[in-house]
Design a protein that fits this description.
Length: 519
């Protein structure tokens, strides 16, 4: 039946206009240029060194032993990188990467040559033998042979075993030899200094056990370097440092293009002032890392997988460059919803404005959700799970068009089903955030609009969708307690606060009713 009083429809309309205004202001702010420090660069404008992993095309991964990188791709990649860097660091000589020094020498670049050390001794010996042969073949191109990368951190070899590998490398080649690990593990194994020509440390403020905000990240890096200089007598190379452009915040440590530019630009200036030797991580985004480290793992690159730079090292930076996309998606959503409402013979001005504003919200939200799904989903299961949440929300929001004009029982059951799916999905996500939170996203964009509309929007329309089943009391307890525990684990993470708020709204929308309510 048609909602008799115009007041609920006007409340609903003003509510959606307010939401659309807030979303538009946020997008406008994201598209404004931000002033970022411009570092002092060398005369040739090039930076010292960058980690180069060529596994950025579909299906390329170092985890598949059958992956092979063609020389033509390496030539193409290094031609691009040679315009901005004097050196690249590679982590292995397998899968075709033994060609990198030859390609680099043609471009006047140097290479930190990596020998990957893992669990299996036979594979380690084969890798190290090939790395030694490559180093001996290109002694002028190889800056150093890096034997092992974070092996002690992963617990794959002992300190004694690493000393043996390092000793073998030093005896078999004339290039400098070193080992790379996070700075804490170098301090746990200071005796390794005797086995290397210089100490190679990784300083990644985002990944610290106590994650650093972008405001304090450079101070943290400087403090770590001062500590290491007091610990070790030999020279120190910062073998990895950088910042992710996409992914979940860790406490106050927030990924993002602006923060990536702030850290890297600021670090380059700090390295210049302190006369540090460094290697940035990393040259190109690595989609395969998302399977190991979550969304954030794939987005440490200075270049994206299309080999376009995410930012330059001078001038202002924008977090987003949307152009007219939000206006286009919002306009299409408004037209779609308005057309469906007119098709249902809706003629009230309040209803038409409310539905159009909801459609604009839907269009922009769908744009943001699609962006998130493209960055977060790695395989079919993730597309089914996360995509299913998004589609459930879309169905619920589109169905509100009928509710504005016709509050019928079919919509009631549909809304209850959609909100129940979101409730169960949210419980699952909260539990995953608790047990595996380091690599899990707070999927705020998938839940925000449908949950707000199903709980607050329908409430303003005087449309009660609360179920009768008492089982929901238990589900609400699980949801709220788990979401609250996520916030307890990361009290400085703003997304954890938003997630708790969304969880509360889900509980509000599905709180069991004690008696039937009229619509």
């Amino acid at each position: 039946m048609t909602i008799s009083s115009p007041k609920p429809t006007w409340y609903f309309t003003l509510f959606n206009i307010a939401l659309l205004t807030l979303l538009s202001v946020w997008l406008w702010q994201q598209n404004q240029a931000t002033a970022v420090i411009e570092p002092q660069l060398p005369g040739d404008g090039k930076l010292q060194c960058v980690s180069y992993s060529p596994y950025y095309h579909q299906g390329q991964t170092p985890l598949n032993p059958n992956t092979f990188i063609e020389p033509a791709q390496i030539d193409q990649d290094l031609t691009l990188l040679s315009k901005q860097f004097n050196c690249v660091r590679i982590y292995s000589v397998g899968q075709g990467l033994d060609y990198v020094p030859e390609a680099a020498s043609k471009l006047g670049m140097q290479v930190y040559l990596g020998a990957w050390i893992g669990w299996v001794k036979a594979l380690n010996d084969k890798e190290l033998d090939l790395a030694i042969a490559v180093a001996n073949k290109h002694p002028k191109t190889i800056k150093a042979l890096i034997v092992g990368n974070e092996v002690l951190l992963r617990g794959e070899q002992t300190e004694a075993a690493m000393k043996a590998y390092l000793t073998k490398a030093k005896q078999a080649t004339q290039v400098p030899v070193t080992y790379a690990d996070v700075w804490e593990f170098w301090r746990k194994h200071p005796a390794l200094e005797d086995s290397v020509d210089f100490v190679t440390v990784h300083i990644l403020p985002y990944w610290e056990d106590n994650p650093q905000s972008i405001k304090h990240a450079l101070d943290h890096t400087n403090n770590v370097m001062n500590l290491l200089k007091d610990t070790f007598k030999k020279p120190i190379l910062i073998g990895e440092t950088g910042w992710p452009s996409v992914g979940r915040p860790r406490q106050e440590s927030k990924p993002g293009t602006i923060n990536q530019a702030i850290y890297l630009r600021g670090f380059i200036q700090l390295a210049h002032d302190k006369n540090w030797n460094y290697n940035l991580i990393e040259a190109i985004d690595q989609p395969w890392k998302r399977g190991l480290e979550g969304t954030v793992g794939g987005y440490w690159g200075i270049y994206n997988t299309n080999l376009s730079p995410k930012f330059v090292f001078n001038g202002d930076i924008k977090a987003r460059t949307d152009g007219l996309r939000p206006l286009l998606f919002g306009g299409l959503g408004a037209l779609l919803f308005l057309g469906l409402s007119i098709y249902l013979n809706e003629r009230r001005k309040s209803a038409l404005i409310g539905v159009a504003s909801l459609g604009a919200l839907f269009g922009i939200s769908a744009l943001l959700q699609t962006e998130y799904l493209l960055t977060a989903c790695q395989d079919r299961d993730e597309w089914l799970a996360l995509g299913g949440v998004a589609v459930t929300g879309w169905i619920a929001i589109i169905s509100i068009i009928w509710t504005v004009s016709k509050a019928n029982a079919n919509n009631l059951r549909l809304f209850q089903t959609c909100l129940t799916i979101l409730l169960l999905a949210a419980i699952t996500l909260s539990i995953l955030l608790i047990v595996d939170g380091r690599y899990r996203d707070f999927s705020i964009s998938l839940y925000a609009l449908p949950v707000i509309q199903l709980s607050l929007g329908l409430y303003l329309l005087k449309h009660n969708i609360r179920p009768k089943l008492q089982l929901y009391y238990l589900l609400h307890v699980i949801l709220i307690v788990s979401a609250a525990y996520c916030l307890y684990l990361e009290p400085s993470n703003f997304l954890a606060t938003l997630w708790l708020a969304i969880s509360i709204l889900i509980a509000v929308g599905t709180w069991p009713k004690r008696q039937d309510s009229t619509h």
